[in-house]
Amino acid sequence: MRSKRIFLAAAVCCGTAALGPVAANPASTGLPWMDARLAPGERAGMVVQAMTLDEKLKLVYGYLGADLEWKNSKRPAESRLQSAGFIHGVARLGIPHLWETDAGLGVASQAGPDVRPGTALPSGMNTTATWNPGLAYGGGAMIGAEARAFGFNVMLAGGVNLVREPRNGRNFEYGGEDPLLAGKMVGAQIRGIQSNRVISTLKHFALNDQESGRTTLNARIGDQAARMSDLLALQIAMEEGNPGAVMCSYNRVNGVHACESSYLLTEVLKQDWGFRGWVMSDWGAVHSTVPAANAGLDQQSGMPFDLADYFGPPLKEAVLNGWVLPARLDDMARRVLHAMFEQGAVDHPVKPAPESFDRKAHAAVSLADAQEGMVLLKNSAGALPLKKTAKRIAVIGGHADKGVLAGGGSSLVTAEGGNAVAGLEPKSWPGPVMYYPSSPLKAIRKRVPSAAVSYHDGVDLAGAARLARSSDVVLVFANQWTAEALDVPSLSLPNRQDDLIAAVAAANPNTVVVLQTGGPVTMPWLAHVPAVLEAWYPGSNGGEAIAAVLFGEANPSGHLPVTFPASEAQLPRPVLDGYPEVKDLRFDVDYHEGAAVGYKWFDLRGEKPLFPFGHGLSYSEFALSGLAARVKDGALDVSFAVKNVGKVAGKEVAQVYVAPLGVRWEAPKRLAGFQKVDLKPGASANAAVTVDPRLLAMYDSASKTWQVAAGDYKVILAADAAGSKALSQVVHLEAATYDVRGKRLR
Ligand code: BGC
Questions:
Q1: pTM (global) more than 0.90
Q2: Residues contacting 27, CB < 8 A, separation 6+
Q3: Burial level of 74, CB count in 10 A (0-12/13-18/19+)?
Q4: What CATH topology corresponds to 620-739?
Q5: Of 468, 473, 475, 570, nearest to 514 (Cα)?
Q6: How far apart are CA 212 and CA 194, in angstroms?
Q7: What lines the ligand 1 site, CB under 6 Å?
Q8: What confidence tens digit (pLDDT) does each residue in 89-102 have?
């Protein structure tokens, strides 16, 4: 029987979130813009007309929603406790305050004693590794519902900085290295968040691709290369998600601070892409009043993080003196209001009701995401799934007795039960290092009640090896904590964990490695272990998820959203610029690789990675067939079939790459489409993708168009970027031109 289950629809988790009361109607308030039938732009325009100068100024000035002792600053009384941001609304006009919370993995809290226990999604890298936009949407819907329940109407989510630098401490928050995959996945999450009438941001705009020197570095890249890489990811995410706000980043781009770059904010984002919401700064990313406002920054965030009150009294003075035109201030306020009306912040006001969400249902969303994003990197000799007949199982290292690791910084969600391994360094920003109390050891023991499952912390290598030697099977857990504001010094696992794995594998060849890392790591011991499972940061139910995958209750179907290099020497920058960080040092990062990011760079240089982009194994086997690529009216449609030829149900990610034959691109090939398919054993499904023409084109900066060159192109259907199971077909494309948004011109 043919079964056809393809993920198109969104897997919304928890029913419709309580959206709160619909705002009063215009008749009862006397406020004409309260008529929800009017277009957001019209409503916003009416409000701006009715606002005083001071009211407009208030709307473009944001506070940190937490006390900051070292700045001697108190949060506004109306803000939510220990929250990321707050902006005053205009009560007399029916405009609510903006209550902002971090971030993309759930509702985070600023440092202090009153954290909100919420549900933590697995890392963004994990969610992206599902290649399942429906799951990303469902995760967004879940965390957006929690944001609303905690009384927030803005979520500082939507992180989509490309993995140009695998040592970047924030890669775990983002969507991997490919603009199409990242844009689609993060865009779907934004849509999910906003389905709760909670505004989501898209961040960090732009080219904030490493944390070392993030506030001082200058990313040097040309317009064409930027539009075909980092900016394309942001553009696709914007189109998919329609975020109400965009957060400009800390770094400089081609010499100009991102939050005062008219090129980025006005030309690219607002004019070229048609973004209608508002640009808020990152916390402490503003450096001026007049240049920033005139370049397109609409709102200063998180005071007192900036050196001065740039959008406070100085902005008023600038407007009164005409250095910033009143029309520009109107535009700033109108953009904030537009997003508030469009996303429902006015019509569905938030009211804190923290107990109103179903924690169990939310936990299930996080669990499903974790299970589907884990990547089975290696599995030989039938090492996995684990057999329940094993008598003596050793679990070693990684605090697997206590819980699972989370990434550090502003996105850190405190889950229920608090930190399972408190006291690790660093204890303060960007710490604390947090482990969610979902113990893999317990979850393993539960599944094999009659086996002897022993735990060793892995600190003493000889002791760990002794335990390994006397066990039937060994599960060694190795972790790499990464965090905002900090890059990792190298791609090696820290704290002698490579030595630990080598020692344990030497003692017992039946050693399975479970990794919890922010992104790629190197694996000098790889040849000596039969199986490796990359579990990323698996979220608040990660221990359960890991055990379910190890025992085969969940069939792994994650695929790498990032290349795993064999060594740092293969990277565009073998040595990380600006590491270790020297305070206030200004330096350039030369993006000489241009748009050839990740696998594109590896292809270009003929480098063989440790694991290629797109790689991921399953407990089943899949066959790809029936590739048919057709060009109709300039559009490239690709159809194919996927069959589960193995013994268990599972999901495969079919990947479509395009490689030009005569024409020159930045790299030999690009990911042009993908489809995840869920199949019972023996079942097959037909699938199809239509390729976004921008992925067949080169961007031309002078004419602001995407140009497809006439020629032959190879369409490749494969299970990873290295071409596993590849089928291919050559098609001929005629020359075609698309506008900056990808609309056909000729
Ligand atoms: C981060 C942002 C975050 C903001 C508010 C900044 O340090 O870069 O991603 O949203 O803080 O906490």
A1: yes
A2: none
A3: middle
A4: Immunoglobulin-like (2.60.40)
A5: 475
A6: 32
A7: 84, 102-103, 156, 203, 282-283, 302, 410
A8: 999 999 999 999 99
